[in-house]
Amino acid sequence: MKKLTIIVLFILTAFGSKAQSDEGLHFGLKITPSIAWLRTDSKEVETNGTKFGFCYGLITEFKFAEHYAFATGLDVTYRGGNLKSTFPTSDPIANTSTVTVTEFASTLQYIEIPISLKLKTNEIGSLTYYLQAGVAPGFNIRARADIKSSTETTDLSVTPNTKTTSNSELNDEDIQEDTNNLNFSMLIGGGVEYTLTGSTVLLVGIQFNNGLLDISDDPDIKANSNLLGLSIGILF
Asked: Residue 4: pLDDT above 80?
């Protein structure tokens, strides 16, 4: 984490100096309502739907060439998603089999520092089109979950087999100890910028954020956090 911070500060300083000399420095604000979900490759765990995500934060752009800008900022991002796990077990001594199904709905909050390259077209009327690609390191600051579990035990020693079921439910459970403190995502997107007046620009774009790290510290759950959002912002 310390090395990452040093690299980010070095890049910001280098591009910031270049941008200021070219008068290409812009600041702004953005919000990004989004759809968030968790992707998993585990055999016992599957994605169980999406949830509403949200992001808001600051934008900083350093224009270093006619059609290129370095974009960064500071975001507060709400991610998460729904998972469903199925774990079968058996007890040969008691001659029983058990299946536990758990539904896991999480809300994860991160501080993120997006770092990206922005490619822009010439201004066409009042519109400029752009493509954007980069990475977004993030640091988890909050993790909560609603957890529903159902356990069905089948007694195989009698005919017909008898089944017993037990249920449990936890709401707004703190899962930060089971959540990876660091997240790292690849981001790509595109959109348009509309010149309002002078250097003030309204931007609207689509952004896909693909998580590359396992967000869980639980050995039984492996998942990556994805997000697809509509970014709306203003640059000055």
From this structure: no
- Mean pLDDT for the chain overall: 90
Q: In this structure, what DSSP letter does residue 161 have?
A: -
Report the distance separating Cα 215 and Cα 34, nearest Å: 19
Cβ-proximal residues to 197 (8 Å cutoff; 6+ apart), any chain: none
Residue 61 in tokens = 């752009």
| pLDDT level of residue 12 (50, 70, 90 thresholds) | very low
Tokens 């697809």 locate to 228
Distance CA 228, CA 58 (A): 19
Closest CA to 186 of 130, 114, 131, 129: 114
CA–CA dist 114, 135 (Å, integer): 6
Give per-residue burial for 211-221: e unless 16+ CB within 10 Å, then b.
beebbbebeeb
CA 68 to CA 188: how far, in whole Å? 15
